[in-house]
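User: Sequence in, structure out. Go.
Assistant: Echoing your sequence, followed by the structure tokens.
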Amino acid sequence: MNRRRKVYEGKAKILYEGTEPGTLIQHFKDDATAFNAKKKDVIEGKGVLNNRISEHIFTNLNAIGVPTHFIRRINMREQLIREVEIIPLEVVVRNVAAGSLSQRLGLDEGTQLPRSIIEFYYKNDELNDPMVSEEHITAFGWAAPPEIDDIMSLAIRINDFMTGLFLGVGIRLVDFKIEFGRLYENDMVRIVLADEISPDSCRLWDIGSDEKLDKDRFRRDMGGLVEAYTEVARRLGIMSENEPIATRGPVLVK
């Protein structure tokens, strides 16, 4: 494999220079982190599962007209994506009380919210990704008011689609985190969905038992993370019942 230029490395993914102008290669690692990387581990096979689940969701979102950075999956661990300017916000959509929302407001985990709630967090690990308002976002120039409108509109569409997608396979979409970027095309700039959507970034509960099928299994030392992610992939029809997990994928040249 030819040596590739690394553009960025995060907690769960590496971005390399793409094979075509205006593209990047997004590589999914097996690293598992929680609480802004205060808790770390390597869980073999996690990156492969996240790659395939995210590919499935992004492909379907592209098909219904939601603009994303995703172009195609290259192999078991990598995707070809459009290069975008990431907006420094984590957008969290909540349907059911869980995690920090339950802690902040004293709500029992599992309480159905009166309506879906959209929250914004400033992407800054040193500050532990603080929650911010639209006033903060516009005052500090992270996004303009029309961009916020686009982000919220897209977040609602994504939530509607994903709620139905997971409900159809017996999974309750509790909440999820997404990120957006600016895609520059000639003289046009548009907001597109970026990053990933996987059990790393969603809370997914079995409808019948409330069994957790997401990264809370790692956060809360429950074990069985790869098995839970595999169950999500199989329910979505990405993997057959007997298909083994290809854990290693391509070997990268450092």
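User: And one key feature?
Assistant: Residues 249-254 have pLDDT under 50 and may be disordered.
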